[in-house]
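Re: the 410-residue chain
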Amino acid sequence: MSAGNLWIVLLPPVLGGVIGYFTNDIAIKMLFRPYGPKYLFGQKIPFTPGLIPSNQARLAKKVSDVIMRSLLTPEELQKLARRLLATERVEKAINWLLRLALDQMQGDAQNKTAKILGKVLQDLIGQSLPRLLRVWSRQDDFLEAQINQIFDRVLLDFQLAEEQAAQVSDWMVNGLLPPDRVRQLLIDFLTDYNIQVIDETLRAKTSGTYWVVANIFGVRNALTRLRAVCVNEPEKSNARIAELIAGLGVKVRLQRWLLQFSLQELPVATVRQLRSTLRQTIKTYLKENGGNLLESVSTSIDWEKLASQLLGRLQASPVMSESLETISHELALILERYLERDLEAIVMQAVPILNIDQVIIDRVNGTSPKELEAAINTIVRSELQAIVNLGGVLGFVIGGLQAGFLLLQR
């Protein structure tokens, strides 16, 4: 083969392969480059910027439509929400938040929390609860079940212990009815009218020895003298009364009676009437004075200090720490039941709020052409290089066919 024929055979395939290779390479690069428009003599050069940069807004819209229509459908979002809001994950998240809140209630944060909690407690006890109490007290069955339960379970079975009975009897003898008060009661009781009534009753109603004493000697003079002694000789009267109380063993008798006393010994009708009276008395008192009582108590309490103490006890309480697990579990179950019922509606409301399609569009538009090129090349670099190589192969084959055709013509 001569040199001329050799050039005819080799040159077309080589040129075709080179042209095909670089043509595809330039075409692929023109998808992204140039990144911005180029101008010559004030006129924009065609095909600048590249195909993707010049249509980036349309690309972003298409990408958003494809994702929202095929990938992030409401059904898929519901499945995603169910996986994210699984009971175990929600329980752990709630537990973490509760422990975080408990840890945050320290130092300055604890002081602020104590101030807020103190104001809440003050408003609750001093204002809200009295108003509620006034409203509740108008109801016919207000506290009826609670008072009946306390009466039946506590008061009906209650009995004083020996020490308690001794304290009560001592209080009754020395505090409630000391000798001086007994003397004053005798003076107030032994009026002229009462003495006359006692004397006439004993004269008319007694018999036997008592009739003789009442009608011959009478009791008027004795009672009158007793009143005079109590009025004129208070110290002596008090001493005699104290001796009489001690001699009669009033304190011991009272103690024995208190030890044996129980409401169960009373007749059933009496117990029922006592329970009804107690209930009505409490209701009447709360209705008339309950609100004022709570308001006065509210003003006398340092609520901020009380709230700080409550918070301190909560932080140090092992029960509080142990109960966080139970609280988290119960709240997670409540949320799970709520999501089972309303998850679809929540997702449909959340999609417009999240505006995912616009987020995708903004993200694509905000990505520079250079970054888009790098991202796409990272994903399909081998495929794009295969296209370039295919262009070179096809150019070489077509050039070879052309060389063969020319060779046959010669």
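The mean pLDDT is 78.
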